[in-house]
Amino acid sequence: MDVEKVNSMDFGEFVDVFGNVIERCPLIAAAVWSQRPFSDLEDLEKHFFAFIDALPQSGQEGILRCHPDLAGRELQRGALTAESLREHSGAGLMSLGAAERLQLAELNAQYRARFGFPFVLAVRLGDREAVPRELARRLQCPPAQELRAALGEVKKIGRLRLADLLGSPPAQQ
Amino acid sequence: MDVEKVNSMDFGEFVDVFGNVIERCPLIAAAVWSQRPFSDLEDLEKHFFAFIDALPQSGQEGILRCHPDLAGRELQRGALTAESLREHSGAGLMSLGAAERLQLAELNAQYRARFGFPFVLAVRLGDREAVPRELARRLQCPPAQELRAALGEVKKIGRLRLADLLGSPPAQQ
């Protein structure tokens, strides 16, 4: 899909295609449509990220709270979005043993209790062994630093999803 | 449900219950959770509305773009949210004749083309005859005035949905 195609979309088409670039936040894609036309993938991405950065802290936390626990209840009950399911699958998180699932469930619960949002990680950039390691490490971070780190992961996930949709390599950091 | 129950919810429960107070915008409920504890229904409502008011214009338009056309394609293909389906049903919008559906489809398309978001109306406060009449009237409004009017309807819908959830009469304006 090229950028002319993107720029020709009405808002309904745009939200259908880009509504889950930020997990379960079609509001953000629907807002970004106001900024068209876009010059390229990087420009489109820039508007998604600028919207996130401009939200009050409660809104940024709200974005995180729309994410599932990694390898958590949504996976078990088949309630992941298509994008998240693909990312779980690619990272090998569909085939964890009971002990690994229990370990992750406990770490996820500790993380949620400490920060008030779920642990978010761009798992396509790592492997399944990295998940509990990163979770345990980030559990120790100060809350303000951890909010920034988590939003950084949201953006990495969004960048990869946008690149998938547009059939291009992700824009450089 | 009383406010103590609401204040005791973790964010997952809160988003499960209040995630569609603003149509297809769970991000907003997820953000409002940051403001707990709430003193009463009116206080909870105030935080939903304050979040909407603080968004940039693109975000406010984004909220509107997450709404379905009234008696439109989402109704036809069974893709309305439970709340919206109930509101459509209560207003008699499930049983329109072909001529009425066509009239609404044409007015909805004109409205979308003029304003860049769908026509939103708190149909529980009117009747099915009011829908095309209000649509035709609001089509003539200046865009800035119409954005305010449309967000006012989003808030009326949110107020009624919150009152349903909490089992209370809606807070006074």
From TrEMBL, chains A, B:
Q: What is its main location?
A: other
**Where does the protein end up?**
Peroxisome
Query: So, what pathway does this thing act in?
Result: Purine metabolism; urate degradation; (S)-allantoin from urate: step 3/3
Any idea which GO molecular function terms this record carries?
2-oxo-4-hydroxy-4-carboxy-5-ureidoimidazoline decarboxylase activity
Query: Does the entry feature the keyword Lyase, yes or no?
Result: yes
Q: What is its EC number?
A: 4.1.1.97
* Entry annotated with the keyword Cell membrane: no
**Function field:** Catalyzes the stereoselective decarboxylation of 2-oxo-4-hydroxy-4-carboxy-5-ureidoimidazoline (OHCU) to (S)-allantoin.
Q: What cellular-component terms does GO give this entry?
A: peroxisome
What broad class of enzyme is this?
lyase
Gene Ontology annotations of biological process type: allantoin metabolic process; purine nucleobase metabolic process; urate catabolic process
The family line of this record is: Belongs to the OHCU decarboxylase family.
* UniProt protein name: 2-oxo-4-hydroxy-4-carboxy-5-ureidoimidazoline decarboxylase
Signal peptide start-end: none
Q: Where is the Oxo-4-hydroxy-4-carboxy-5-ureidoimidazoline decarboxylase domain?
A: 7-163
Q: Which UniProt keywords apply?
A: Decarboxylase, Lyase, Peroxisome, Purine metabolism
Q: Which residues cross the membrane?
A: none
Q: Which reaction does it catalyse?
A: 5-hydroxy-2-oxo-4-ureido-2,5-dihydro-1H-imidazole-5-carboxylate + H(+) = (S)-allantoin + CO2
The record's InterPro entries line, in alphabetical order, gives: OHCU_decarboxylase, OHCU_decarboxylase-1, OHCU_decarboxylase_sf
Name the Pfam families for this protein. OHCU_decarbox
